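User: Can you help me understand a structure? I only have the sequence.
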Amino acid sequence: MDNKRVLDMGCGTAVLAILSKMRGASQVEAIDIDEWAYNNAIENAQRNHVELTVHIGDARLLDDNKGHFNIILANINRNILLNDMEHYVAALQKGGDLVISGFYESDVAALQQHAESLGMRLEQQKSRQGWSALRFRKI
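Assistant: Let's start by predicting it. Here is the structure, written out as tokens:
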């Protein structure tokens, strides 16, 4: 994961951001709208001795980061993913990956259709116990 810029969108406790940094990402940012999550992400990064840039806010924070990230991780519900996906795609480099999770299998078709309309290609789908995750590549 060297020289990879990763964003953990809707980071919560920042587990995915921390793991990305531990796996060798060169730069990791995390964003959440919740102040508790923001503070918790900072604390968890410190406890795990990793350097993260943590922001409080929503997907509009990405508007100044066009083409900046190699990977965006978003473990958020269907409606927020659909609403914010345009921001995620704009912030991805060409060839970058968007990995989304936190939604039901029944939501896959709507999310896939929306992502493909924004220039993404489905690369991988996983489902377990009614929950799904999708990985898209920006083409």
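Now, to help you interpret it: The chain has four helices and seven strands. Helices lie at 15-22, 35-47, 78-91, 108-117. Let me know which part you'd like to focus on.
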